[in-house]
Structures are given as structure tokens and as C-alpha cells.
Amino acid sequence: MEYTVHKLAKIAGVSTRTLRYYDEIGILKPARINSSGYRIYGQTEVNRLQQILFYRELGVSLECIKDIVTAPSFDGLRALKEHRDKLLDKKKQLDLLIDNVDKTIALTEGRVKMTDKEKFEGFKKKMIDDNEKKFGSEIREKYGDEAINLSNKKIKGMTKEQHAEWEKLSSSLMSTLKEAFKTGDPAGELAQKTAYLHHQWLSCAWGHYNKEAHAGLAQMYVDDERFTAFYDQQQPGTAVFLRDAILIYTGMNE
After folding, report:
1. Quick one: which of 61, 68, 67, 53 has its CA closest to 12?
2. pLDDT at position 243 over 90
3. Is the domain 159-250 a CATH 3.30.43.10 member?
């Protein structure tokens, strides 16, 4: 079956402008242009659009999606299976959050009792899942599955008080880093206090401390543009400054 832009947009739940844009950037070309100048889409294009929308739902950028679906090695069936696995993971996360909300409502209405740990289960899992989605492959490659799984387990097991302390450390770390950056001296007192706070913050999640691993993570902040973008969002150069401060703190700057 074939579709015009308007018909395909209607059944897919997207705008005609979106389909025209996908054509312009080369991610979804029509099968042909008819004699009246209308874009015509066939089954191959419908399947491609489904894949694109799956990836968009998972938060993948259009640039990355284009690289994936236009690659000669692209396997549509394998991609669908991967989508299913990721959507199931997302469903588990949503189910946990919904269960958390239901329990909180019941608690508020006086129908059940809920521990402080239960109140934060869904939120801690979401944080872990978000980190896995953004940086999982890189940090697992660098530190190994065992170390990352142990860290995730420790985060999940945090009490309300421990989680609050971790959040407090994170806030203190970022505010101190901001002030330290203004000095321009990674070896200065404020910068080294920042490195120490970073050490403490990591220890809450890692359960142990290793200066080589600390220095390696600091280097990743500079090597990986996503980490760099996070630290540089308020002031460009912050990621490099933090890296240098940590290298000095750990004695790994030589």
C-alpha cells in the first residue's frame, strides 16, 4: 500500500512538516514522486518511519538515527528486538514509579504504611537507569560490569538520610567548583577542596575509593563530550579545570 505525505502523517501520528524535514535531511526519502509532484511512501518507508519513531521515543538524536538506519549493516528485525528490550526496561521503571505513587496515595489516605526506603525506590532506579542510558557503555568498558553493578546496588540500598547526604554533597561540590574555577588555579585551596568533595561524593556511590579510578573518571570528563557539556554548561573550561584539580589531588598529574 502507498501513502501520500498527509495520509502517512495521519496514521503515524506525526506532522506533515516532520515528514518533509525527514526527507530534507535524508533520513526518510519517499519511494517516489508522482506526476503531480506529491511524495509517495511505500511499505519500506513505513517500516523505516516506525524505526525512526522508536529511536526518537528512546531519546536518540536524529543525527544518530540517520547513521543507524542508513548503515548498510542495519538489521531491521534485530533493531525491533532491541527496541522491545529497551521498552520493557522503560516499562519496569514506569511500573515502579506508578507503584510508588499508588503506595504514597494510600499512605496519605491512611490505608497503608510505607517506609522511607520505599518512597525513594522509584526515583533511585530512574537515576540509575538514566545514567546507564547516557554513559553506561563507556563506564562499564572502563571500570567493568562488576564495579558498576556494585555501585548501582549501593545506590539502590541508600537510606533516605544517606541519599539526602549524597545530594547535599553533590550540591556543595558544584557550588565549590564554581567558586574554585574563578580562581583559575587547580592547585589552589578551593580547587583542592572541590577535588576532596568529589572524592567524598564518589565514595558514597562506589563504597570504596581508588585514586587511579578517581583520576581516570576525571579524564573521562574531558574526553567524553557529554560529560564535558554537563560541567561546561555554566562556564566553558570547567571540565578541564576539575580534571586538573583531581589529578593534582590524586597525585596523578605527573
Report:
1. 53
2. yes
3. no
**Model-level pTM greater than 0.70?**
no
Q: Which amino acid is at 241?
A: F
d(CA 121, CA 114): 11
Chain mean position to CA 145: 18
- CATH 1.10.1660.10 residue ranges in the chain? 3-69
Q: Are strands 3-4 and 32-33 parallel, antiparallel or unpaired?
A: unpaired
Cα separations (Å) of 188 from 102, 112, 133, 243?
A: 50, 53, 35, 14
- Predicted confidence at residue 164, as pLDDT, reads 74
> In which residue ranges of the chain is CATH 1.10.490.50 found?
159-250
In whole angstroms, give the CA distance from residue 71 to residue 69: 6
Question: 79: buried, middle or exposed (CB in 10 Å: 19+, 13-18, 0-12)?
Answer: middle
Closest CA to 70 of 132, 28, 17: 28
pLDDT higher than threshold 90 for residue 189: yes
87-140, pLDDT tens digit by residue?
777 777 777 777 766 765 665 665 555 555 555 555 555 555 655 565 555 555
pLDDT in the model for residue 25: 92
Mean pLDDT, residues 31-44:
93
pLDDT, greater one: 167 or 193: 193
Q: Identify the CA nearest to 205 among candidates 130, 128, 133.
A: 128
CATH of the domain spanning 3-69, picked from 1.10.10.60, 3.40.50.300, 3.40.50.2300, 1.10.1660.10: 1.10.1660.10
